[in-house]
Design the sequence.
């Protein structure tokens, strides 16, 4: 079992090598450069404790404007992708319930991520396949600011899919998996 420090280091390497390295997210490089990312490992079981960890991170964002984005890492839970998706659905409802629509946005990443209707061996799934199940909380105002200067942001998913498919399944899997090596 990995320690929290190891999970954070693996996640940082994944963001640097995969998310930024493959240019999957046009916002990530700047957040890395500014060191405005907070990493939190939720060493909790699935269920209520997971939701409490999520709410704690929205509170952190409310209280600390120097944090641009949060990665909430579930290194010991949500190994089953469908259970994780159920949790993501609850998180989205919690955002609305707490009045955070238009303030925060959640992106979801999982080691077994599978887009609806996609084949599990489609390299495109690696655009959202991470080293651990995690939630990425982003400030919508930050996204809006970046999108003002980004050309054709609506094409980002298509470019990401084309890149992953061009690189292929073996490459994308290797790239992600090397992020967990010491």
Sequence:
């Amino acid at each position: 079992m990995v320690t929290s420090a190891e999970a954070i280091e693996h996640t940082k390497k994944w963001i640097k090598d995969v998310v930024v390295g493959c240019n999957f997210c046009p916002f990530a490089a700047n957040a890395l450069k500014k060191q405005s990312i907070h990493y939190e490992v939720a060493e909790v079981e699935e269920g209520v404790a997971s939701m409490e960890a999520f709410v704690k991170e929205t509170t952190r964002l409310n209280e600390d404007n120097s944090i641009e984005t949060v990665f909430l890492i579930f290194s010991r839970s949500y190994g089953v992708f469908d259970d994780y998706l159920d949790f993501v659905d609850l998180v989205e409802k919690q955002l609305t319930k707490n009045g955070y629509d238009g303030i925060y946005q959640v992106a979801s990443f999982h080691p077994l991520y599978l887009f609806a209707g996609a084949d599990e061996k489609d390299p495109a799934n690696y655009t959202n396949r991470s080293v651990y199940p995690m939630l990425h909380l982003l400030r919508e105002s930050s996204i809006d600011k970046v999108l003002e200067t980004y050309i054709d942001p609506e094409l980002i998913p298509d470019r990401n899919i084309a890149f992953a498919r061009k690189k292929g399944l073996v490459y994308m899997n290797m790239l992600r998996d090397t992020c967990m090596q010491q």
